[in-house]
Amino acid sequence: MQLIVDYVSELCAAEGVEQCFDALERAVIRLGFDGVIYSSYLLCSQKEEGASPVLLRSEGFDAAFLKHYVEAGLTDQDFTIKRILQGNVEPIDWWLEDERGILEPQERTVIEIARHDYGLHNGISIPTLSDKEEIAGASLVSNDKEPGFRKLLDEHFQVLRNLVRLFHDRIYADPVCRKTMMLAHLSDLSEKERKILEFLATGRPLKNIDGKDITPAYANKLLGGLSQRLGATNRQQLRYLLGLYRIHDLWAS
């Protein structure tokens, strides 16, 4: 299929996450879908607020719905995220799940809002990662009603799944893309949190941190929460992650 050939060529030539996602967007639109969103969440070891999610949205995925989704805290009601957290990485057809009668009322609310308030009549989520540190996946939406959407899936489901898988593997194999993703996860850090992580990345002991703005005791207090938010089980792993993605260089740029 020429679409696959073109897509692989574009992924190989892409520089950075945005260009890779642009290639995915063009490919899924050629298949007949209207929009796509890719999401990545770092997981906490405890029930505390995690790092900022990475959300890559195409123009055809309604920005107003995404804003509603985030501001209303619909993540907690999203059955697709619950499935991925349980280790289920099989594709999830939103309304087919409802037809099976397995959704709780609050879970059904999420897709009802998408359909009735924002015109996203159908959607399918394709998980790409589920482990103790991170979950990720893409959701494709269509404004087509039944049976048009069902025909679209019947004809292109396997190709669609491969497109998403190739995108995920491409950005996770590329150090530059991974740095960009990690920086996005760190976007809501305070200035003091950022300074502590920058100092930790130097490998020097925290007792040598500048005590004028941040004392060693205060730095130690914040580091526990930072490790949990970024999916690190201990300080050594956190230092490894910071060095691996050269976070200091990204902030400096």
TrEMBL record:
Superkingdom, natural source: Bacteria
Keyword Transcription regulation in record: yes
InterPro entries assigned: TF_LuxR_autoind-bd_dom, TF_LuxR_autoind-bd_dom_sf
Residue ranges of domain Transcription factor LuxR-like autoinducer-binding in the record: 18-170
Protein name: Autoinducer-binding domain protein
Phylogenetic lineage: Bacteria, Pseudomonadati, Pseudomonadota, Gammaproteobacteria, Chromatiales
Keyword DNA-binding part of the UniProt annotation: yes
GO molecular function: DNA binding
Organism: Thiorhodococcus drewsii AZ1
Keywords assigned by UniProt, alphabetized: DNA-binding, Transcription, Transcription regulation
